[in-house]
Specification:
This protein is an alpha+beta fold and 238 residues long. It is 29% helix and 36% strand. The strands form three sheets. Strands 8, 9, 10, 11, 12 and 13 form a six-stranded antiparallel beta sheet that branches. Helix 1 packs parallel to helix 6. The longest helix is centred in the middle third of the chain and has 23 residues. Bound molecules: adenosine-5'-diphosphate (ADP) and uridine-5'-diphosphate. The site of uridine-5'-diphosphate has 14 residues, from strand 8, helix 2, strand 11 and strand 13. The site of adenosine-5'-diphosphate has 17 residues, from strand 2, strand 7 and strand 11.
């Protein structure tokens, strides 16, 4: 797949146009950011690990009937995806309290959330991704009511599929963030699912196996990502 011009350079991935207007190449870089891009570091092989992790998860979600942008893995660090018209909203599902929920409501980290909590944030680093509601999404025209309903339903379906998948690998899926877009009118899951955008705790020790290791300066970030991948049966080519 010949890539042409760079369409978008995000904090961790670059998107390139291809000769097919419906397809993009997503290149996963080693850049690792936290706190809305205030901290950026290079973690060697992170791009390859996240690309291959994401490919595995997107395939599982596709098999479970979730419409995703993923077409195929092109190289250790690149994926071919459908080009979506992205909706600037982050859909978060939470099974346990952590991160911003703990800071916002003062609840204990790890508190069980039953039923799982669904939250929305505006994707805007300059505003530090403020929390919004479905009413904001509709009122500001970021998505229609029907599109919002689909994103809500798909996020909870992803949660059900992946909670089971991770539990079988002795990992608790604590929370995660998804981004959706439109492909010829259909709401499709875009962006990535990797330990950069979710929280995973070891079922027995409670040890963090996700990007909180980077955010909290715990070290061993990529060893944890590799371990999660290995538990899922992913053989990384890095
Ligand atoms: P960020 O924008 O948060 O810095 P990334 O570095 O991950 O994040 O950049 C990837 C960018 O590509 C994001 O803006 C994301 O919304 C966008 N994107 C992801 N998947 C697609 C897709 N299938 N079509 C178009 N844009 C996409
Ligand atoms: N998340 C993300 N990108 C963001 C914000 C959050 O991938 O810009 C993920 C994060 O990794 C976690 C979940 O979404 O798995 C919920 O994040 P939270 O609201 O707790 O924010 P945080 O404290 O992680 O910034």
């Amino acid at each position: 797949m010949n890539t042409t011009e760079l369409l978008y350079q995000g904090k961790a991935k670059s998107a390139y146009l291809t000769e097919d207007p419906d397809l993009l190449v997503l290149a996963f870089r080693d850049d690792t950011s936290a706190f809305d891009g205030e901290v950026i570091e290079q973690l060697e092989a992170k791009g390859a690990i996240n690309n291959q992790f994401n490919a595995f998860i997107m395939q599982k979600l596709g098999e479970a009937g979730i419409p995703t942008h993923f077409v195929k893995q092109l190289s250790p660090t690149e994926a071919l995806v459908k080009r979506l018209e992205m909706i600037p909203v982050e859909c978060v599902a939470r099974n346990r309290a952590a991160g911003s929920l703990v800071r916002r409501l003062g609840v204990e980290e790890g508190l069980m959330l039953d039923p799982p909590l669904f939250e929305l944030f505006l994707k805007n680093d300059a505003l530090h991704d403020p929390m919004i509601t479905e009413h904001h999404v509709e009122a500001f025209g970021w998505a229609t009511r029907d599109e919002m309903d689909v994103m809500h339903r798909l996020t909870l379906e992803v949660n059900a599929v992946l909670s089971k998948l991770f539990l079988a690998a002795d990992l608790t899926l604590v929370d995660f963030k998804l981004e959706f877009g439109r492909f010829h009118g259909e709401i499709v899951l875009g962006d990535e699912f990797s330990p950069d955008g979710c929280r995973l705790w070891d079922v027995h020790s409670g040890e963090k196996k996700d990007k909180d290791r980077f955010r909290q300066g715990l070290g061993g970030v990529l060893d944890a990502y590799r371990e999660v991948g290995a538990r899922l049966g992913i053989v990384f080519d890095t």
